[in-house]
Write a structure and sequence with these properties.
0% strand; mainly alpha; extended; 173 residues
Amino acid sequence: MAQLGYNNSEKVGVIIMLLVFLIYTASSLVVVLSIIWNVLYLLGAALLFRKVGEPFWKAAIPFWGRYTEFSLSWVGLLGVIEFSLNILYFLIYKIGESSDLLGNPSTAVIVVVSILAAAAYVLTIMSRIRLSYAFGHGILFSLGLIFLGPVFFIILGLDRSEYNGNPGVIKFF
């Protein structure tokens, strides 16, 4: 009696098809989640700007939105610098990636991109801490702004806390 089943090459083909499907599905999910995250950030920033008396539509203009966000807690020019660092490290990475025949960026490009990204993240973290203190919240709310920014921007835009102005020097202890 003949045995029904798949030979090894057919099994490998099915496994490859399943892996391609999973990768495609995961990448689509990442895109959808990224869109949702950015819409939540836009909503939260608009609510926050409205709360402090700024026009809500500034949140939709990337350069101006970052400038306004940093102006609330620190110095607006640092927001422009932070945004510029993000654009710069993205461009340098893409140029470095395309300059190599295999699409692998050189070590120097990776180091420069890492330094620019770290500088941008440090500015963002410091601004979020200062923003939390500008509304009378503490370090735990700052951590929320850092790690779950869009959610905590919405909370900040809807809660009853009042904007106390730029916090100046912050003493943590």
